[in-house]
Write a structure and sequence with these properties.
Blueprint: H1 3-23, H2 29-33, H3 37-51, H4 55-80, H5 88-104, H6 108-124, H7 130-142, H8 147-169, H9 173-190, H10 201-220
Helix pairs in contact: 1-3, 1-10, 3-5, 3-7, 3-9, 4-5, 4-10, 5-6, 5-7, 6-7, 7-8, 8-9
């Protein structure tokens, strides 16, 4: 499975999630299917770092689209009654930055500490997926050469996140369904063959804010 196919799966999954809020109001099977999206995007950030020709352009591109996407994202959140936060491009940006710092710094424990600090900033500043999002991206990079370790650490991160949710908000059956679909994203990720496939680099960048704005407009009807 090429990077192109993975991105298409993630885009479709993300669309299910956001349309689910419009139709069902959240916590529906649309949203569970949507749980495939972020792990795939997080994995693609790790792969993107390994294959980019210019990391600074990559970081800048994520920053620009984070800014562009914020208003459509907030309009979507407002229309769906979701607490306002910073969109997922900020999370992907900080995840990529964490990888970059870790890779370039001489003492790896300092690289891990920097990734931890970036995760805390993401959590405190209400990035979409917060600390967990940065951790997932970092895990995919850190264990990129060992699929078993990558999958086990990913599953542990998912379980820890849901234990925290249970501690904060109490047990909900939806957490189980959501976790199973999040972990299910590993099925697609493990089928990745290392090939790029068709070049759709800017499809995701533009699709994200455009589809959020369209959902917002539909919600007004």
């Amino acid at each position: 499975m090429s990077s192109f196919i993975l991105k298409i799966i993630a885009i479709i999954s993300m669309s299910f999630d956001h349309v689910g809020y419009l139709i069902m109001g959240g916590s529906s099977w649309f949203n569970y299917i949507g749980r495939f999206a972020f792990p795939i995007f997080a994995f693609q950030i790790s792969e993107g770092y390994l294959h980019t020709k210019d990391i600074y352009k990559y970081l800048f591109r994520l920053f620009i689209f984070a800014i562009i996407s914020q208003i459509p994202f907030m309009l979507f959140q407002y229309s769906m009654g979701i607490n306002l936060s910073l969109n997922v491009f900020f999370t992907l940006l900080f995840g990529l930055l964490a990888i970059f710092i870790y890779d370039k710094i001489k003492y790896k424990f300092l690289g891990i500490l920097c990734a931890f600090i970036l995760g805390l900033v993401a959590e405190l500043c209400s990035f979409d997926y917060g600390f967990y999002g940065i951790a997932i991206i970092f895990i995919f990079y850190l264990f990129r050469n060992n699929k078993l370790a990558m999958c086990l650490n990913f599953i542990i991160a998912v379980l820890l996140k849901n234990l925290y949710r249970i501690y904060m908000y109490g047990f909900r059956v939806s957490y189980i369904y959501s976790s199973l679909f999040v972990i299910g994203a590993l099925f697609f990720i493990c089928l990745y063959n290392g090939k790029k496939g068709r070049n759709i680099k800017y499809l995701l960048y533009f699709f994200y804010p455009v589809h959020l704005f369209l959902i917002y407009l539909i919600s007004l009807i």
